[in-house]
Amino acid sequence: MGAVSEIAGYLASTLITFYLFIVILRFLLQLARADFYNPISQFIVKATNPPLRPMRRFIPPMGGLDSSSLILALIVQAIGISALLYINYSAVAPAISLLIWSLLGVATAFTKLFFITILVSIVFSWLAPQSRHPALTLLHQVNEPVMAPFRRILPDMGGLDLSPILVFISINVLEIMIRHGAVASGMPAGIIIGLN
């Protein structure tokens, strides 16, 4: 692979990963019933509305879940996989492989996003425990549905919250399963956005 194709692959991967995370955040904001008047929420809504508005005419929500956002995440992941596959290998994926790899990629993006947001929340809880910054409020709202079940499992430890450790262990287990699923599906190395 030459320098130009490596740079193209890096730029494509970076841009697609960024937009994929925004789409997944849009899904999580609705799932967690987060504050949509938060300025960061408003940015996420504005960034995702152009493709989601027409999609919502044909794709209704299912069981209270924003299915349009999930399908958009799969489409973004599929575009990313197709672009990287073409840039790195000058190849095109069969439709069924593309679907499987996209599902694995979106699952990976969810785990990575939770890992990052929980880690940022932990760091800021040490540095600025009383902060009311909109980003921290939003992180708390998005992470709480994942953290709450683990908090219920652990006994009260006098104000020490060890639930993030259990969440990180669970995320690592999921990532190992996803990585093995990717290998079993015949995915070429470095193709799924966020798996590296």
TrEMBL record:
Protein origin, superkingdom: Bacteria
Transmembrane segments annotated in the record for this chain: 7-29, 70-87, 99-128
InterPro entries assigned to the protein according to its UniProt record, in alphabetical order: CCB3/YggT (IPR003425)
Keywords assigned: Membrane, Transmembrane, Transmembrane helix
Family assignment from sequence similarity: Belongs to the YggT family.
The name this protein goes by in its record: YggT family protein
Annotated source species: Sinobacterium norvegicum
